[in-house]
Protein backbone atom coordinates (compact mmCIF):
# COMPACT_ATOMS: atom_id res chain seq x y z
CA UNK A 1 0.00 0.00 0.00
CA UNK A 2 1.34 3.42 -0.98
CA UNK A 3 1.76 6.25 1.53
CA UNK A 4 -0.84 8.29 -0.39
CA UNK A 5 -3.41 5.51 0.05
CA UNK A 6 -2.63 5.16 3.74
CA UNK A 7 -2.97 8.91 4.40
CA UNK A 8 -6.21 9.12 2.41
CA UNK A 9 -7.62 6.03 4.15
CA UNK A 10 -6.84 7.38 7.62
CA UNK A 11 -8.20 10.78 6.61
CA UNK A 12 -11.47 9.21 5.44
CA UNK A 13 -11.76 7.13 8.61
CA UNK A 14 -11.13 10.16 10.78
CA UNK A 15 -13.79 12.17 8.95
CA UNK A 16 -16.26 9.31 9.46
CA UNK A 17 -15.47 9.13 13.19
CA UNK A 18 -16.05 12.88 13.53
CA UNK A 19 -19.50 12.43 12.00
CA UNK A 20 -20.24 9.56 14.40
CA UNK A 21 -19.11 11.58 17.42
CA UNK A 22 -21.28 14.51 16.30
CA UNK A 23 -24.34 12.28 15.97
CA UNK A 24 -23.69 10.67 19.36
CA UNK A 25 -23.30 14.10 20.99
CA UNK A 26 -26.62 15.25 19.56
CA UNK A 27 -28.36 12.16 20.96
CA UNK A 28 -26.64 12.10 24.36
CA UNK A 29 -28.55 13.03 27.51
CA UNK A 30 -25.77 12.23 30.01
CA UNK A 31 -23.70 15.39 30.43
CA UNK A 32 -20.51 13.56 31.48
CA UNK A 33 -20.67 11.24 28.46
CA UNK A 34 -21.55 14.17 26.21
CA UNK A 35 -18.50 16.07 27.43
CA UNK A 36 -16.26 13.04 26.84
CA UNK A 37 -17.62 12.63 23.31
CA UNK A 38 -17.04 16.32 22.62
CA UNK A 39 -13.42 15.98 23.75
CA UNK A 40 -12.94 12.93 21.51
CA UNK A 41 -14.53 14.76 18.57
CA UNK A 42 -12.28 17.79 19.11
CA UNK A 43 -9.19 15.57 19.18
CA UNK A 44 -10.33 13.78 16.02
CA UNK A 45 -10.85 17.15 14.32
CA UNK A 46 -7.30 18.21 15.24
CA UNK A 47 -5.93 14.94 13.88
CA UNK A 48 -8.00 15.30 10.70
CA UNK A 49 -6.61 18.79 10.11
CA UNK A 50 -3.03 17.60 10.62
CA UNK A 51 -3.61 14.75 8.18
CA UNK A 52 -5.20 17.16 5.72
CA UNK A 53 -2.11 19.41 5.92
CA UNK A 54 0.18 16.42 5.28
CA UNK A 55 -1.94 15.27 2.34
CA UNK A 56 -2.01 18.76 0.84
CA UNK A 57 1.76 19.31 1.30
CA UNK A 58 2.57 16.00 -0.38
CA UNK A 59 0.15 16.64 -3.23
CA UNK A 60 -2.23 13.84 -2.18
CA UNK A 61 -5.14 16.23 -1.82
CA UNK A 62 -6.08 19.35 -3.72
CA UNK A 63 -8.61 21.54 -1.94
CA UNK A 64 -11.48 23.13 -3.81
CA UNK A 65 -10.71 26.57 -5.22
CA UNK A 66 -11.51 29.56 -3.02
CA UNK A 67 -15.08 30.74 -3.46
CA UNK A 68 -15.66 34.14 -5.01
CA UNK A 69 -17.27 36.87 -2.86
CA UNK A 70 -20.28 37.08 -5.18
CA UNK A 71 -20.89 33.33 -4.86
CA UNK A 72 -20.64 33.51 -1.06
CA UNK A 73 -23.05 36.45 -0.88
CA UNK A 74 -25.52 34.73 -3.21
CA UNK A 75 -25.43 31.59 -1.06
CA UNK A 76 -25.93 33.63 2.13
CA UNK A 77 -28.94 35.35 0.57
CA UNK A 78 -30.43 32.05 -0.56
CA UNK A 79 -29.93 30.40 2.83
CA UNK A 80 -31.25 33.41 4.73
CA UNK A 81 -34.37 33.44 2.55
CA UNK A 82 -34.86 29.71 3.10
CA UNK A 83 -34.49 30.05 6.88
CA UNK A 84 -36.84 33.03 6.98
CA UNK A 85 -39.49 31.26 4.91
CA UNK A 86 -39.19 28.16 7.09
CA UNK A 87 -39.49 30.25 10.26
CA UNK A 88 -42.51 32.08 8.86
CA UNK A 89 -44.16 28.80 7.92
CA UNK A 90 -43.63 27.36 11.40
CA UNK A 91 -45.14 30.41 13.08
CA UNK A 92 -48.30 30.16 10.99
CA UNK A 93 -49.02 26.59 12.12
What do these coordinates show?
This protein is mostly helical. The chain folds into 2 domains: 1-62; 67-93. It has helices at 3-27, 31-57, 69-92. Helix 1 (3-27) runs antiparallel to helix 2 (31-57). It is flat. 4% of the residues are buried.
Helix content: over 70%
Radius of gyration: 19 Å
* Count of distinct structural domains: 2
Count every helix, treating DSSP H or I runs of 4 or more residues as helices. Answer: 3
Organism: Tissierella pigra
Keywords: Capsid protein, Coiled coil, Virion
Pfam families: Coat_F (PF07875)
Protein name: Spore coat protein
Q: How do the strands and helices of this protein lay out in sequence?
A:
Layout: H1 3-27, H2 31-57, H3 69-92
Helix pairs in contact: 1-2
Amino acid sequence: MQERDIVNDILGGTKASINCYTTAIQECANQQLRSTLQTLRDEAEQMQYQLYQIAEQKGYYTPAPTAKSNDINQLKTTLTSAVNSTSSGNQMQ
